[in-house]
Amino acid sequence: MNMSSVLHRSLKSTLPSVVGGEGSYLVDDAGNRYLDACGGAAVSCLGHDNAKVIAALKHQLDQVSFAHTSFFTNAPAEELAKFLVDRAPEGTGAGRVMFLGSGSEAMEAALKLARQYHLERGQPERVRIIARSPSYHGNTLGALATGGHAGRRAPFQPLLMEVGHIEAPYAYRLRESGETEADYARRMADLLEAKILELGPRNVMAFVAEPVVGASLGTQPAPAGYFKRIREICDAHDVLFIADEVMCGMGRTGSLFALEQEGICADITTLAKGLGAGYQPIAAVMAAEKVISAIETGSGTLWNGHTYMSHAVATAGALAVQQVIEDDGLLANVRARGGQLQQSLHVRLAQHPNVGDIRGRGLFWSIEAVADRDTKAPFPVERSVAQNIQAEAFARGVMTYSAQGCADGRLGDHVLLAPAYTSTPDEIERIADTLAAAVNAALDAQA
Ligand code: PMP
Fold this sequence. Notes:
By secondary structure, the chain is an alpha/beta fold. It folds into two domains: 18-50 and 329-446, Alpha-Beta Complex (Aspartate Aminotransferase, domain 1); 55-327, 3-Layer(aba) Sandwich (Aspartate Aminotransferase, domain 2), CATH 3.40.640. The protein is built from 15 helices and 17 strands. The protein has a seven-stranded mixed β-sheet with strand order 4-12-11-10-7-5-6, with helices on both faces. The protein has a four-stranded mixed β-sheet with strand order 1-2-3-15. A four-stranded antiparallel β-sheet has the order 13-14-17-16. The longest helix has 22 residues, at 425-446.
């Protein structure tokens, strides 16, 4: 195959060219079929050829595709906003939702919204953001600065605004032996209070966290009670809580909003991948009543805007995606197939000498590969273990998503699975079988 004219992430490798999608499978120009076990990056939650979504997109193309939001709103965007507001945990969404093109854009918008909230209320000194490490919040400079991912930040460090980071819960390595889950949750959440006090409570604008950490930490849920304590701390200091549900939201963890399972709601919520399931690029920012009303009663103007906001085709597609998820009862399948995937991974890999941890929630699971199970020592980064497992699985026709720690030596390699919500029991078995074969092949090859 010729070198690609498109600038992809890797300039050294050639990629197969995708020409079709059939349910959970993608097909390349040589006719090879790949079972998409990771939704690309936890995006394609309805497979690749959903008839209802495609019909909705075609219908909207026949009406109108784009009209700038300085002049018009449009029906699919209005309907999608209402759909989300009606289903969000009480308090999450006020009357209004902002639609953007990507998760990074949504994170930038969330940070700016938090800044605007405090400015509207006469607190301009609140400029400091606190986030967690490891975490990933996007690739644009503000989102990258917010994320706690050493490897991705490193080349751009001089360009990044200062953000305070606290450690994210990571039971496999951070929960002390003998520590109860409640004590562990409290200890991890209280790191936020300490950081707020360190930065000066009146200077802190927002705390940002993924309810279930995705790409940076391999599908890591928080311990029970963690987010309740986070909510208390944010309320006590008038700090806005921004939940980044870009990857874990829209059903991926078994509930439409991942935070539903924590019994609290955020002040600002970002959504993206599962929102449009990849049929069109789309992201959303929802904000609680107090944030919206501060703007309504203040300047009355959103200090943020992008050309493709509320794109009619993108919102029509996302609305159809969400209707399919609801009408077909797919969250029940996420939970059922998720339980199956968890069990299948445990059966095949829990005793493997180089698999240290298997973790996740819903249809969002990861394995963490380590050099030594007793010491939990990670493999050296240069061995590219996660990438090699991904390559072995891909060679066997299954797509998985590899992430190699944070390049700071604190994390093992992990391989993430995020199959479609429509997955069948047979597909789940094939995913678990292939991942186990790929782990064996990648580690044997390195032995
Ligand atoms: N936040 C989280 C939690 C993500 O996983 C991602 C993407 N992996 C982003 C933000 C950024 O989204 P995008 O790549 O669409 O800009």
